[in-house]
Each structure stands twice: as structure tokens, then as C-alpha cells.
Design goal:
Number of strands: 2
Strand order of the largest sheet: 1-2
Number of helices: 6
Strand content: under 5%
Order of helices and strands: EHHHHHHE
Structural class: mainly alpha
CATH class: Mainly Alpha
CATH superfamily: Tetratricopeptide repeat domain
Radius of gyration: 18 Å
CATH architecture: Alpha Horseshoe
Shape: flat
Helix content: 55-70%
Largest sheet: 2 strands, parallel
Distance between the termini: 13 Å
Length: 165
């Protein structure tokens, strides 16, 4: 039986409109002016919303579980892009999606890509785990995923596919 790759956190854990990292200027922003001729709404559609990032992450999970890996990667990628646009590259929710992408690449046998995603996620998780350090559950599960991929690589590819929870 192949070891399972794990995801460290819920995709909707901290990415909310009340989160100052997501919407730092929301409290000080002027109310929208319907008379503006500027087309600022196009930028909002391009970036997406926190809710859309969660929905796309969850669609990625559904597609991954259904074996539709390319669709899963597309949804995860869009979720990641929205999260980066809203909260920045080092937000923990970005790491959650990177970890999911790494797990999917691991199940596809794409070990180098999996490791790249896991290492990026680990870096972000460690940035936000000052109190717990490497005992933080997100850090622990990401290190575990990295070790599973590395162990699989050392076995000479005998474990071509790893399984996700």
C-alpha cells in the first residue's frame, strides 16, 4: 500500500474579507461610485474573489479525486493565482493550494514538480509558524509529503504513483 500525501489545512481557513492581509484597504476605502466611467470592475473579475479561490480549490479536489488531473491542476492554478493577487505570495492559503498541487503531481509520478510545490509551501508555512516551528501541523504534513516523494525517488521508481487522502 502506498503512503498517502496529506493536505495541511482547509482551503477556506483564513482567506476571508475580514482578514487584513486579504483586504487591507477595505475599511478605509471610499464607497463605490456608480457614476465613475472608469472600468475598475474588469480588474476585479481578473483577480477573482476569496470565495472564488476557495471554490476553485475545492473543484480541484473534486477533479483530482475523479482522476481528472489536468482539470484539477487548472483549478488549483487559478485558485493559487487568485490567492496571490488578493493576499500575496506568502499567505498560508497560497501554501495550502501549493501543497495540494504538489500532492497531485506526486500521484501523477511527477516527482520534481511535486517537490517544487511542496518546498514552496513549506517555506510559506514556516514563515507563519513562529510559535510552533516545525511542530506546526501544516509544516509537519508538508515535510512528510516531501519525505514520501524523496523516498519514492530513492526506491528507483518502484512506487510510480503515490496516493492522496
Amino acid at each position: 500500500m502506498n503512503p498517502a500525501l496529506t493536505e495541511p489545512a482547509s482551503p477556506d481557513a483564513d482567506l476571508s474579507a475580514d482578514d487584513p492581509a486579504v483586504a487591507p484597504a477595505a475599511k478605509d476605502a471610499d464607497p463605490p461610485n456608480d457614476d465613475d466611467d472608469d472600468d475598475d470592475d474588469d480588474n476585479d473579475e481578473e483577480e477573482g474573489t476569496a470565495l472564488e479561490s476557495v471554490i476553485r480549490h475545492n473543484l480541484g479536489l473534486i477533479h483530482a479525486e475523479g482522476g481528472r488531473t489536468e482539470l484539477a491542476l487548472e483549478e488549483y492554478g487559478r485558485s493559487r493565482d487568485i490567492k496571490v493577487a488578493l493576499a500575496g505570495e506568502s499567505h498560508p492559503e497560497v501554501a495550502v493550494t501549493l501543497n495540494a498541487m504538489g500532492a497531485l503531481h506526486g500521484t501523477m509520478g511527477e516527482k520534481d514538480r511535486a517537490l517544487a510545490h511542496f518546498r514552496q509551501a513549506l517555506h510559506i508555512f514556516r514563515m507563519h509558524s513562529a510559535e510552533l516551528g516545525d511542530d506546526d501541523p501544516s509544516v509537519v504534513s508538508t515535510i512528510r509529503n516531501i519525505r514520501l516523494i524523496e523516498r519514492s525517488s530513492l526506491m528507483g521508481g518502484r512506487e510510480d504513483r503515490l496516493t492522496m487522502d
